[in-house]
């Protein structure tokens, strides 16, 4: 399942982190809703479920931490029946100065880092919402995924997927993971 670009919008919810995934058309306008993601707050083991509808009655995929409360935990992305779609993991050692993730999907492997070293350092010392830009590339250096957070009242990410081998569900899980996991 491939989608070249989408927007991830954080929605207000009192007891959970909620996100809406919206298709981004080539002209930059927003298209159809691609789903809703929800993560319970203060969970000991991270789990995010993606639903096809606003009422959250039809789960379509999810990601779950492999371990509880681990700063370098890995996260498995699965379809609605539990079949693996991919995996991502924070590279804790490399993330001390610039947050770094490893990402895997069917036939795709890459590393993602914050684009700006200066913004990465500022984000660690200032309690302000700053832009976040991540670029994921394969071992060969080809672009896989770009995630850019814009400065708005609620978090909003523009996600571009230049590599058509990367499943939309893995890209969406990584984008939600970036927001949810960077807020700790």
Summary tags:
184 residues; mainly beta; twelve-stranded antiparallel barrel
The average pLDDT value, as a whole number, equals 88
Largest sheet: spatial strand order: 1-2-3-4-5-6-7-8-9-10-11-12
Q: Give the low-pLDDT segments.
A: none
In helices, the fraction of residues equals: 10-25%
Q: What proportion of the residues form beta strands (DSSP E)?
A: over 45%
Counting DSSP E segments of at least 2 residues, the number of strands comes to 12
Shape: globular
* Separation of the first and last Cα atoms: 30 Å
* Total helical elements: 2
Topology as a string of helices (H) and strands (E): EEEEEEEEEHEEEH
Radius of gyration: 15 Å
Which secondary-structure class do the elements indicate?
mainly beta
The description of the largest β-sheet is:
12 strands, antiparallel, barrel
Explain what this protein looks like in three dimensions.
- This protein has 184 residues and is mainly β.
- It has one domain.
- Helices cover 13% and strands 46% of the residues.
- The protein has a twelve-stranded antiparallel β-barrel.
- Strand 3 and strand 4 (47-51) form a beta hairpin.
- It is globular and about 40 Å long.
In short:
By secondary structure, this protein is mainly beta. Helices cover 13% and strands 46% of the residues.
SSE topology:
Elements: E1 5-11, E2 16-24, E3 30-40, E4 47-51, E5 59-65, E6 74-79, E7 84-90, E8 100-105, E9 108-114, H1 117-125, E10 132-138, E11 143-150, E12 156-160, H2 168-182
